[in-house]
Amino acid sequence: MDNTFKNNEAQNKELLFHLKEKLKRVKLGGGEKRIAKEHEKGKLTARERISYLRDKDSEFLEIGTFAADGMYLEEGGCPSAGVVAGIGYIKGRMCMVVANDATVKAGAWFPMTAKKNLRAQEIAMENRLPIVYLVDSAGVFLPMQNEIFPDKEHFGRQFRNNAKMSSMGIIQIAAIMGSCVAGGAYLPIMSDEAMIVDKTGSIFLAGSYLVKAAIGEHIDNETLGGATTHCEISGVTDNKYDSDQSCLDAIRNIFDKIGESEKAGFDRIESQDPKKDINNLYGIFPTDRVKPYDMKEIIEHLVDESTFDEYKKDYGKTLLCGTARIDGWAIGIVANQRKIVKTKKGEMQMGGVIYSDSADKAARFIMNCNQRKIPLLFIQDVSGFMVGSKAEHGGIIKDGAKMVNAMANSVVPKFTIIVGNSYGAGNYAMCGKAYDPRLIFSWPTAQMAVMSGASAAKTLLQIKIASLKKAGKEISSEDENKLLEDIKAKYDEELSPYYAASRLWIDGVIDPLETRKVISIGIEAANHAPITERFNVGVIQT
């Protein structure tokens, strides 16, 4: 084992330790004292509810764990955006589960809470998965109502999605396990079935204080909107239960009798482990984002039997294209090659850069996968498209547009894993968030921005200096160095995968060893949604 392998392994494991420590903190929600208070009320926490509800020893893929990480600090923070969401199994059936975390600001909705709920609904809609809402929320966080209330992607969109999912035949089950107030009351009641926990669950458009202020009526919250009121008088909810556990058991009973859904028919055989030890990923993958490496080696440590059938392997070599299997599922892979390659004409091409020939190859490969009904996996470590007169004269924009066109119009499900760089238009061409990947996750080594930190810092510095000089200020070399350091520090923070995850530009940050699980769950989810749209690229840039 050489020093390079050992150094990479040590650095990657240090990043993983940081990831695991962050996960521990986030999963405490509002903290141990708040968890204890929920237990005193006889309630389970959001994560305990999901754990009780889902099948024991089954996989659970959490979505948006780091949503709102480092945000809203002036309000005390909002871990996981105050809601836990993910893909799991209930009575053997795959579904999406969304649970408000009452330990975080009583489950109040911050702007990122709305964004995360909409992402969970989007995943359910795209994959036609049943969705379970475990409701326990004080409603919109009023000091930020202007950022959450009226726009298209704000709070109200979830109720539009409730209606759309119902019309699509997607099963929605809701349990009111705590507060459910104001507009939020529509979410469970627009579901197929709404259950409520007696004494702890309540639902109303306005609570007792607001009722008194608005119409002068004196009434307590339990009489106004408790389980007895809505199950025996109003008929708003369907059944009441005496504990969280009995309510969750009732949801499991519903899932026990759901009929089988149609399938898309993606090919799967018995899963095989990679022949190359997946644990060696830590040693062969460099944490230094400028160091070259062979992406084919990375792929062979991820795919079944380490078998990768490469497409046009001697052409357009800065992009690797080919078919493989992950956990038995057939998959088409488009990945950035990070080592320097040489063309037949003797031209040296930089790793991580998309050239005309590689864009042309990838476009054709993507079209083939659509023709053959093979899901697509994009593995990103991309600096961008090639620049300069030679590239421009060779039609790089045209060839890049062809690749983007084929990728954007794909009807097979797409998945994205960002392992390293994700810069500029390269992010777009390699199926960034804007291009509707069914799931998009990153490794702890990922960086996402318009350009690299060094390039951006120097560009921003020149803009800042020009602005200061225009204002008549003289800049010393010491001032210039200080400005550069400040700019670089800010930009480096924004490059972090946790910065991207906090804003839901990605669905989460994962240990590289979890990559196979993420892709397998993603394809299994996508297999619940038959492809009904015809693949059509429109006007292709030839």
From TrEMBL:
This protein's record includes keyword Transmembrane: yes
All copies of domain CoA carboxyltransferase C-terminal, residue ranges: 273-533
CoA carboxyltransferase N-terminal domain location: 12-270
Keyword terms: Membrane, Transmembrane, Transmembrane helix
Domain of life: Bacteria
Pfam family, one: Carboxyl_trans
Stored InterPro entries: AcCoA_carboxyl_beta, ClpP/crotonase-like_dom_sf, COA_CT_C, COA_CT_N, MCCB/AccD1-like
Bilayer-spanning residue ranges: 167-189
UniProt name for this protein: Acyl-CoA carboxylase subunit beta
Lineage: Bacteria, Pseudomonadati, Bacteroidota, Cytophagia, Cytophagales
